[in-house]
Prior knowledge:
The chain is mostly helical. The chain has 9 helices and no strands.
Amino acid sequence: MAYAFDFASVLEYREVLVDGTLKTLALTAIGTVLGLAVGILGAVSRAWKLAPFDRLFAVYVEAIRNTPFLVQLFFIFFGLPSLGVQINEWQAAILAVVVNLGAYTTEIIRAGIEATPKGQIEAAQSLAMGRAQIFRHVVLPPALLKVWPAICSQVVIVMLGTSVCSQIAAEELTFAANFIQSRNFRAFETYFVVTAIYFLLAIAVRQVLIQAGQRLIARRTK
């Protein structure tokens, strides 16, 4: 018997899809801002060997990069409450995204910092600039500009990875898909639509980040 497609049964839940999409974007946005902050701190600590933080970040990076994101999420959501740390599903999801993205961007940004020509730093020192001023005005903007495409790709990877947050009942896009499919029993149509949404989100987020990098970071390097 030929299969009769019924995408209308999915579109009946368009408000659920929109809500899940917005929550996925919000989770990605918050995780990106905080994750980049962690990544910058980790990168400067490792690149400039600021003890003892360089060793702490080295252990942190290796631990996160060599374990699955889902296990990290479960550890935060199920493990921390066992230690008396009360955390809800959204707090756990945000923390997991920040921790994961922070580890990867630490290494990405560190590569950019280490690629900074020593002559630029020596020139800044000759102008009596302090270490913080050198980092803020001479080192960080060019470093970010060099590695920005890699950061954009990593953010998109993390955004797509947020789909596993549905496993702890965080109501993002995949959670919405599971909810819709449990109501209309149209698995093919439901996940086809959600796959298309993720595809469009990935393209849109990457383009927004690239444009933001060109406007904000490139302007500071001039």
